[in-house]
Amino acid sequence: MERRRYYEGILRSTAKTFGFREVATPIFEETELFIMKSGPNILNEIYAFQDKGERNIALRPELTAPVVRMFVNSMSNEPRPLKLFYFGQCFRYERPQSGRYREFFQFGAELIGNANAETDAEAIALAAAMIKSLGLREYKVRIGHIGILRQMLANANVPPERLPEVLQKLDKKMYDDARDILGSIGVGDDAADEIFDITETVGGKEVLGKVSEDVGSYLRELVDILAAMGVVDVEIDLGVVRGLDYYTGMVFEAEAPSLGAEKQICGGGSYSLSELFGGEKVFSTGFAIGFDRILLAMEKEGQKFENTGVDAYVVPVSDDVRTDAARIVSMLRGSGISADIDIMRRKIGKTLNHASNVKAKYAVIVGKNELKENSVTVRDMSSGDQKMVRLDDLVSLFR
Question: Is residue 390 domain-shared with residue 270, that is, in the same domain?
Fold first, then answer.
């Protein structure tokens, strides 16, 4: 937990530097919330059941829908843009494997405001800054536009109700399954191959010649804004699908090669969802970082987390100074200095060994002779250097 809380703190701090505010939603939501967002097939993937009041409820499988529901219920009159971030556990009923759990944690953000390149760039830049702030070395940010495939599938006369299953197969690069679905709809092999070719199109701005002028100019503007914000290692990947109905435009993902097949650590895009929950139509951009998965990626890169101990470990030399030691440790704690004290009544040598084992930075050695001079001995636990310090100066020394 020390490791997790440390990295949580970094992500929270990074979000706040971008002007985002933290929100929290219940772990339980009405099941209908997720059916409206993702379709009835979501029931196969989530923990959904009836409570004692016979209400259909579910453990949240993600946090975008709950945050948008909260926005519609209680924040729709607040000035925009609304820049919200969150952290919490989610639940999905799927086969556990490396980096994929039934209970997992997401750290994400939603920017509710306007459909433009600046909004999308702000969200992508925050996601990239979060990943970079954790110290992950190898990762790739890929951006695309869901409108390209939606238009191609519409031109191929794919009915709107069949779009989600086709996009899901394309998202997972399951081309044989996608071809079977398209064939059953009456889409020929040539049209299917053209669609598959787009999903394999990856590169720089030069690949935008394959798309319509309006989408191409939008993505060029987005890449230019990102470059101005210092996010330069961005790849255009027209195969970033994000197979959910509510995505409307730009979509993006970040992946960590060290994770192998389950390498995605972040995903998001621009969407319109509030009208599904009874609110006005509002364009938003959001993303979620898989917290467990990104910690695993850092571990696979060889990053080590060193636990840090207290600033001061108070060591009474003898039983007759234990009351004085208790007074000293209380003074340090009251001044905001992390401090611990020997409560096992060990000998001084064993107590100092324990202070070293728990990674205390300094030992405050309380002896009878030193107390007569209103002083204690402070030992640097890393170097072994020590010096006499007056009690009146002890707090300022640690500060």
Answer: no
CATH number of the domain residue 217 falls in? 3.30.930.10
Point out the domain boundary residue: 300, 330, 365: 300
Query: Where does the pLDDT of residue 362 fall: very low under 50, low under 70, confident under 90, or very high at 90 and above?
Result: very high
Cα-flanking dihedrals φ and ψ of residue 66, to 5°?
-60, -40
Q: In this structure, what CATH number is given to the domain that contains residue 326?
A: 3.40.50.800
Q: Which residues contact 377 (CB under 8 A, 6 or more apart)?
A: 364, 365, 367, 370, 386, 387, 388, 389
Q: What is the pLDDT confidence band of residue 391, given thresholds at 50, 70 and 90?
A: very high
Choose among 10, 295, 257, 292: nearest CA to 138. 257
Tens of pLDDT, residue by residue over 275-290, are 888 899 899 999 999 9
Looking at the fold, whether 116 and 250 belong to one and the same domain comes out as: yes
pLDDT digit string, tens, across residues 5-25: 999 999 999 999 999 999 999
Structural domain containing residue 356 = 312-398
The two structure tokens encoding residue 81: 């843009």
Query: Please, are residues 252 and 143 in contact by the beta-carbon 8 Å criterion?
Result: yes
Q: Does one domain contain both 276 and 353? A: no
Phi-psi region of 202 (alpha: psi -120 to 50; beta: other; left: phi over 0): beta
* Pair (151, 185) in one structural domain: yes
Give the end of a domain, one of 300, 332, 358.
300
pLDDT in the model for residue 242: 65
For the beta carbon of residue 393, count every other beta carbon within 10 angstroms.
Answer: 11
Count of domains for the chain: 2
- Return the closest-CA partner of residue 145 out of 302, 323, 270, 279: 270
Task: Say if CB 111 and CB 123 are below 8 A apart.
Answer: yes
Question: Could you read off the pLDDT of 293-329 as tens digits, one per residue?
Answer: 999 999 999 999 988 899 999 999 999 999 999 999 9
* Upper half-sphere CA count for residue 20 (Cβ side, 13 Å): 28
